[in-house]
Fold this protein.
Amino acid sequence: MPVRALVTGGAGFIGSHVVDALLHEGHDVTVVDDLSTGRQSHLSPEVRFYQTSVTDFDGLAKVFASERPEFVSHHAAQKSVRDSMANPSFDALVNVVGSVNVFELSVRHGCERLVFASTAAVYSEPVHLPMSESHPVRAQSAYGTSKLAAEGYLQFYGDVYGTRYVVFRYANVYGPRQDPKGEAGVVAIFAKRILEGQRPTIYGDGTKTRDYVFVSDVVSANLAAMESVNHSDVMNLGRGIQVTDYEIFDLVRRAAGSDIQPVYADKRPGEADRVSLAAARAADLLKWKPAVAPEEGIQRTVDYFRDAIAP
């Protein structure tokens, strides 16, 4: 049955794909985005759009009062690890205060279900790999710390007010529409630079690992959660496979048909050396399984950027 859905950060990379999927399923969709990184061009004309920051409580309250969403997908965030380390106050304003604003208004306006986009950055250096949801959390960046704090607030709202929610701790999500500026999306950054004939930078010696999951797989989990949020839970979304920085670079290079070589630079602070996520809980509760292999996903991403760059 169609529901009234609100997606914060819905003009951004992951959020806009969630919006498309919700529309495809026949839901009534509202988007809140301040367009600091998102693009309104990502959105269908069917969407009701409000250019509002989640940090603006009064502006956000007007949206909730007008739209009265039954389901909220909270994807608005400050997502750069590097920027979070340089300006942790702003990171906390967006990721903690902004999230609390969303949670508070969801409760006030009777929202029935909520999905929160969190991150693998909440975990400590790996005690075991792949990391399950019970793995110790001790974020090594301001970004991970703010996301973990927001998770705590959401648990509070669940405990006190009965809010039903799913927290998704994302691995490295990649795919079309990812922003190649900054440092948050390495596949997009590598793709754009290689297609423009520039040498990408690998921070460290290339052996640092991450767990890469294609955006359509993340979207399928979001839709499954919307349909089945009958209790609150935290779930990892990843493939459970470590891929090195150099391996990702080489996959992008081959997809682009290039033999370019990378540039190496010092590893950046706040970044873990190894990451992979166990997603058994999502598999069990949501019947979720990632369907897109890195080779296919990276080819689709490179093709997207090739088309975007073409005159």
About this structure: The radius of gyration is 19 Å.
